[in-house]
Design brief:
The chain is an alpha+beta fold and 259 residues long. 42% of the residues lie in helices and 25% in strands.
Length: 259
Amino acid sequence: MTRHKKHGIKLRSMYQWHRYIGVSIALFIIILSVTGIMLNHTEQLNLNEKYVESDFLLNHYGISVPKKIKSFPAAKHWVSQWDNQLYLNSKPIRITDENIVGAIFIQNMIIIAQSNTLYIFTPDGELVERVSGSDGIPSGIEAIGITDKNLISVRAATGNFTTNEDLLFWKKSPAAISIWSDSAKLPKALQQTILGLYRGKGLSLERIVLDLHSGRIFGGWGVYFMDLIAIFMIFLASSGTWLWVMRYVKRKQHEKHKH
């Protein structure tokens, strides 16, 4: 085999590698290019002010729905607890680490019960009063309800108690007939609204674009994969330049021999 043929084989082999690698990583080059352009214009595109609502992406980033959502109807209103955040209808009203055990609507007020605390809210979600054990309420509240005589009642560790709307005087009432607040599933539309509030501004479009550009969106190995794509891009630039130089030299030699 002559030197000319060996040179031709090398050139053809390099051209094939250049073509195959280029086709294989074309999609990732486009992703890197587009995301790079977007990141260069973050402010103009308002990427840091736009937030992702995709359930798949939010779950992927660990911004998921709580496994347990406690919710109680109170007349035409809904009280729900998502982790440590309390909502009255779709309004966040309080952060608490203690679980709620019920909610009632009485005298145009909403009373939310926890084990040792009662919260009184207006229908608009304004806190009127917080009543605790030091104010005389029974401890170990398990449920809250309304009696047939329109009194507030609680089922506590030491029995059933009733009081008026002022929550000042409590008396043991084992014979009182009460309708207890019972948990229920939130209406779908309201749950979706609260879900948007709960997840809030946890994942910006800028974060997604940045992680897509770096490969971090695919986890730890995604970064190394994008590093590999970068190495291939260096190879493509180098091999492309080398192929152009070789062809240029070959063309000049051909013209020289021709003359």
